[in-house]
Design brief:
The protein is α+β, with helices and mostly antiparallel strands. Helix content is 30%, strand content 22%. The strands form five sheets. It has an eight-stranded antiparallel sheet with strand order 11-10-21-20-19-18-17-16. Strands 2, 4, 5, 7, 8 and 9 form a six-stranded mixed sheet that branches. A three-stranded antiparallel sheet has the order 1-3-6. A hairpin with a 4-residue loop joins β20 and β21 (518-524). The chain starts with a helix and ends with a helix.
């Protein structure tokens, strides 16, 4: 068994000699280092990011301890580029065609048993790298700087598809194989490009000793008195210990407000009460709030106003009468018909295509329009940018000053930071930063039906419209969308608890529970990671809700 990778690599040498009979279709970067030259066809593992130029053979791990806090990277050396390998599978196709129909195939084995195989999708890595690169130097686990890149996503899929259950505490052997593949009528896989093994000692299930864990001493905060309500402190200690041990990753704060009073306040990863958190798309919900306030003040007639009232749409590309008739309400519910879907990497209106442009509003309004999808929910960040622009151009003082005077100052929120569009308009797509307790104030404002300190900040009518299941979330059971707020229920034992909530990349949440006197804020920085939202659901269902509902 221990010689399995050696035998595979011998097979690799045979396949390479066969491959060499077919001329290359693209010119590669070649073999760039002596280390690569001596290790073609091999995969090695490291515990930190090291550039190819700085790599030494002594950096490669022979054994490795896998904990919830450890990092894992891999380095694979090839004798040719992926495009040329795919060319050997279909010699008649061009390089661009090969890019569109194939990629790497990654396979992971644990103790000689195949656990997960993935034919990577187009785009990861990018086309230029597929053409020229003769090596891969990528993270599987990067707890400090990880951004959910394609190789990290592969590792998370591996865990989800069996890896988590087989990586029991103790000694295991990890083997990785890389092949090329193309998809024509069927999937065609090439020979091994590289393989490698690593002995790992798994220690991912630490004992959490709650007797050594102390909860934060909660003190009053501007707008919040301290709650005297009872809760299961041991359950919150278990949660705190699990976060400290890295079982739940990159959690920065947990705030629980009950009956308008501060019940639980915990911080992690060097954050504290004054830390400004970046909750990404949580900021979209603030665009809804400010739109409701602007309607109440008469700046906007109603959410039924159409884009024709604010823009000369004939000046933008792909003119369509449907654009003229698009309402504010359709942008608030992400059901406009614009060809923009952030959940589809191939969508022309995907937000990743917007950010490099010099005018985000023009980007949105230039998009094509599809009558066939009008009324259907699809996540459309660029549409929320348009909402911010409408507010900024309609309100005489501008959006920044208006938000400060009409929302933040009444809530006693003084320390916050907007991000801005290229036109220096507050970015309603997300990234509005403030501390966790101020986010909790925002959630409590909605729980109070728009009232703060006896003053109606948001009309109750707008709160009710916002907290209405306006649209079914595409592809999700019993999940809905209001006015830039999400809706779903969280299960504790056999009981469901419904909440409307703001959500953002990384696992950021402001939750307002419908039939419970609870507002919960969780900030996190697991940006781009596939586990980010899954772990928040578990935190809520297994720890926070059981702890605070126990003593209703």
């Amino acid at each position: 068994m221990k010689h399995s990778c050696i035998l595979l690599c011998l097979f690799l040498c045979t396949s390479l000699s066969l491959f060499a009979q077919i001329p290359d279709i693209v010119e590669t970067e070649g073999i760039k280092t002596e280390l690569q030259k001596n290790n073609v066809g091999k995969i090695f593992f490291t515990d930190r990011r090291i550039s190819n130029e700085a790599l030494l053979h002594t950096d490669f791990l022979q054994t490795y301890t896998l904990t919830n806090k450890s990092d894992l990277f891999f380095v694979a050396f090839f004798d040719n580029s992926l495009t040329n390998y795919k060319h050997s599978l279909s010699p008649d196709l061009s390089a661009d065609s090969l890019y569109k129909i194939g990629n790497y195939q990654f396979t992971l084995f644990i103790d000689d048993k195949e656990i997960y195989r993935s034919n990577l999708l187009q785009g990861a890595p990018q086309v230029e790298n597929q053409h020229i690169a003769t090596s891969l130097n990528r993270p599987f686990i990067d707890n400090i700087n990880g951004q959910g890149t394609w190789s990290e996503s592969f590792w998370n899929r591996f865990l989800y598809n069996g890896g988590d259950s087989v990586l029991t505490d103790g000694s295991h052997r990890l083997r990785m194989e890389i092949r090329p593949y193309i998809m024509l009528d069927t999937i065609k896989t090439g020979g091994l490009m590289a393989c490698g093994e690593l002995t790992i000692q798994v220690l991912r299930h630490p004992e959490v000793d709650i007797s050594k864990i102390r909860l934060n001493n909660v003190v009053p905060y501007n707008g919040f008195a301290v709650s005297k309500a009872l809760f299961d402190s041991n359950k919150i200690k278990e949660l705190k210990g699990s976060i400290d041990e890295g079982i739940f990753k990159k959690i920065n704060s947990v705030i629980v407000v009950k009956n308008g009073e501060l019940l639980i306040e915990e911080y992690f990863n060097g954050t504290n009460r004054n830390t400004l958190h970046d909750p990404r798309s949580v900021g979209k919900s603030f665009a809804s709030t400010l739109m409701g306030i602007a309607i109440a003040d008469g700046y906007i007639k109603s959410e039924n106003q159409q884009l024709r009232d604010f823009y000369n749409l004939s000046l933008f590309e792909h003119y369509n009468a449907g654009k003229e008739n698009t309402s504010i309400q359709e942008l608030l519910t992400m059901s406009s018909g614009f060809d923009g879907n952030d959940e589809d990497g191939n969508s022309s209106g995907n937000e990743d295509n917007m950010y490099p442009t010099t005018d985000w509003v023009k980007f949105a309004l230039d998009l094509s329009f599809q009558d066939s999808i009008k009324g259907q929910w699809q996540y459309f960040t660029a549409g929320v940018v348009v909402l911010g622009d409408i507010l900024n151009k309609t309100i005489k003082s501008g959006l920044k000053k208006y938000a400060d005077e009409k929302l933040f100052k009444p809530l006693g929120i003084a320390d916050y930071q907007w991000q801005y569009t290229p036109q220096q308009v507050p970015n309603t797509a997300g990234g509005l930063q403030m501390n966790a307790l101020d986010f909790a104030k925002y959630g409590q404002l909605y729980k109070n039906e728009g009232i703060w300190n006896g003053k109606q900040i948001i009309s109750i009518e707008w709160v009710n419209k916002t907290f209405t299941k306006q649209k079914q979330i595409t592809g999700r059971n019993n999940e809905y969308y209001g006015y830039l707020f999400w809706n779903k229920s969280f299960q504790v034992d056999e009981q469901l608890y419904e909440a409307f909530y703001c959500a953002g990349n990384g696992g950021n949440y402001i939750l307002v529970f419908k039939d419970q006197p609870l507002v919960i804020v969780i900030t996190a920085s697991a940006y781009g990671q596939s586990y980010a939202h899954q772990q928040i659901t578990k935190i809520l269902s297994d720890y926070i809700l059981p702890a605070v509902l126990l003593h209703q």
